Amino acid sequence: MSQPSTQIRIIESAIPLFAKKGYEGVSVESLARAAGINKATLYYHYKGKKELFEAVLRYQFSRLLGKLRARIEKESDPRMQLLRFIEVMLERKRVVVELMSREILGGARNIPKDAFALMHDLAGILVEIVRRGRREGMFEEVDPFMILNVLIGATNNYILSAPLREKFLKNSASSELPCPKFDTPTYAKTLHKMVLQTLGAKS
Amino acid sequence: MSQPSTQIRIIESAIPLFAKKGYEGVSVESLARAAGINKATLYYHYKGKKELFEAVLRYQFSRLLGKLRARIEKESDPRMQLLRFIEVMLERKRVVVELMSREILGGARNIPKDAFALMHDLAGILVEIVRRGRREGMFEEVDPFMILNVLIGATNNYILSAPLREKFLKNSASSELPCPKFDTPTYAKTLHKMVLQTLGAKS
Questions:
Q1: Percent of chain A beyond pLDDT 90?
Q2: Which of A13, A29, A128, B65 makes an SS bond possible with A34, Cβ 3.0 to 4.6 Å?
């Protein structure tokens, strides 16, 4: 097996471990075992847990950025680009969202400098959509970071609280409240409508 | 010390433990130690970890519901009630949001039946505001659960990612992107504006 694919195998098997136990809760031993290699092989590819965790974050962010850019560049209307942005955020796997959320819960102590550059690129994609909409006279001035914070919060919560929603529904059968029923496309459409209205655009 | 205040002392000292380590990561021994009592005293008040965790969730939800109701009933305009709802959600302590978020991250496996009733009450408060706004001809029809999911996501993310935002800002000094600056009142105002516009109301 060539070097790059071993590295990707190590990264992909590390994701569920870091997601479930967080950076502090995972040993190099368990990371090697999950990848089906010994510790020496892991150390051949990564100096240690810190470097592997950094590689995992770079890997996750790069894939997300690549998917966002590919999906957005197919659209020319900034309003449609916004919808694609929301859809890609909602398509993220739970394990990927879980890993980052657990790190943020712990106080974001293990995030390397270069991951911030990738987060900046993520913010930059939304900033660029909003700027284009303003240039074309479609959007009003709204802080794009505020919108990004709302979108990340709303999409993370949708992905992470799926098991909670399921239990909530089971325990709500006898309630007087209207039954919450929302699937991913409806959620994406509503979020899109919310953001467009906040930007003063017609949907 | 009277019995109720011992129980509250046990609950309050359990919150940061459950918040940092999650339900599975906390022992009865460490819960007793944090409360400054022995295990026998803890078992006198709670059958075990499960019952104490349930008491913690009931305590947190009841306090939140009490604060929401008190703040909302001072307003008669549903639009202002919505703002108060958002403000109270943003005033929650990080440790309280962390505890619930960690439980949700783990798949919401330890949430007792009666906590779902309290979650229902929380949803009911927002449902009632939206219904009142519709009766008074101010709001259009929008699924209040969708709005609740967005508001919980956006306020949780705001509270939990504060350390991340701080580091992000430090690493952004040289960037071309506009600098994100948002404080709690501005965030509350923007969220409020977003939700009002989604409901088709004039702010």
A1: 72
A2: A13
